[in-house]
């Protein structure tokens, strides 16, 4: 029988009677459980990543689908890929029930529309090279389940990130990632441990995919966008370290070519 562990009563009572220190220590104690729960799901995360990489090498994309906190975290992770790895914004796409309005304001009944998710994927010309990843702590969001069901029917790789075992969402996923973080500190507040866990898993998926696609060298973001002075300085120091140039020459080279990787390749090819 499907049980929503994520919505079971908190392990803590009378929260309003606790001191600030007690509340913070309690929350921290619960947060420590998140990484351990995700550790148990690493085989599933690995299975997903190893199937995404060859698809993306053929031009495939990743679509995140979620509502509320889950949808916002998907949009967040997708939005960080271009500046971090220098990839176009069309390769990892976050879709949230209710559209961009829902990033800041709740949109009534948006997550209950079981057809809209698939319609949004069709609008973006989804193909069997793409991957659809549903995100929902409960594992019961109709917007997500409907999209996963149709995607799977069309031969598209599906996955999910949920905080409950054997959920309806997992039943529509080729690769269900179930991170059982337990009840929330505030009962049912899935923005807490579930949200933290979702962010961690999303980081793991896209970072490992981008490394596999050659967007990192050594341990450095050699393809990051040079969108501010801090990142220009960081890129310049990478070139100083890698090529043995002085800071001024390295910065000029970086600005000329637009990324650490392109600058380093151009310098080596000239030698």
From TrEMBL:
It comes from the Bacteria. Residues 52-215 form the SIS domain. CDD domains: SIS_Etherase. GO terms for molecular function: carbohydrate derivative binding; carbon-oxygen lyase activity; ether hydrolase activity. GO terms for biological process: amino sugar catabolic process; N-acetylmuramic acid catabolic process; peptidoglycan turnover. Signal peptide: none annotated. Specifically catalyzes the cleavage of the D-lactyl ether substituent of MurNAc 6-phosphate, producing GlcNAc 6-phosphate and D-lactate. A lyase-type mechanism (elimination/hydration) is suggested for the cleavage of the lactyl ether bond of MurNAc 6-phosphate, with the formation of an alpha,beta-unsaturated aldehyde intermediate with (E)-stereochemistry, followed by the syn addition of water to give product. This is N-acetylmuramic acid 6-phosphate etherase.
């Amino acid at each position: 029988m499907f049980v929503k562990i994520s919505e079971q009563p908190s392990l803590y009572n009378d929260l309003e009677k606790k001191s600030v220190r007690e509340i913070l220590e309690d929350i921290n104690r619960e947060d420590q459980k998140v990484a351990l729960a995700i550790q148990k799901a690493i085989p599933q995360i690995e299975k997903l990543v190893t199937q995404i990489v060859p698809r993306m090498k053929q031009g495939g994309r990743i679509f995140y689908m979620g509502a509320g906190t889950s949808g916002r975290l998907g949009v967040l992770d997708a939005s960080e890929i271009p500046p971090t790895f220098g990839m176009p914004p069309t390769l990892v796409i976050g879709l949230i029930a209710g559209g961009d309005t829902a990033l800041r304001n709740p949109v009534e009944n948006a997550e209950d529309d079981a057809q809209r998710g698939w319609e949004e994927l069709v609008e973006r010309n989804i193909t069997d090279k793409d991957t659809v990843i549903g995100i929902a702590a409960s594992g019961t969001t109709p917007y997500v389940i409907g999209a996963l069901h149709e995607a799977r029917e069309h031969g598209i790789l599906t996955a999910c990130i949920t905080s409950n075992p054997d959920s309806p969402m997992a039943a529509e996923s080729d690769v269900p990632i179930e991170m059982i973080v337990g009840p929330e500190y505030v009962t049912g507040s899935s923005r807490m441990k579930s949200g933290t866990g979702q962010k961690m898993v999303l980081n793991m998926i896209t970072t490992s995919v981008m490394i596999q696609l050659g967007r990192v060298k050594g341990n450095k973001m050699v393809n990051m966008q040079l969108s501010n002075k801090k990142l220009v300085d960081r890129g310049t120091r990478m070139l100083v370290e890698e090529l043995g140039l002085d800071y001024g020459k390295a910065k000029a080279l970086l600005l000329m070519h637009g990324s650490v990787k392109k600058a380093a390749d151009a310098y080596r090819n000239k030698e």
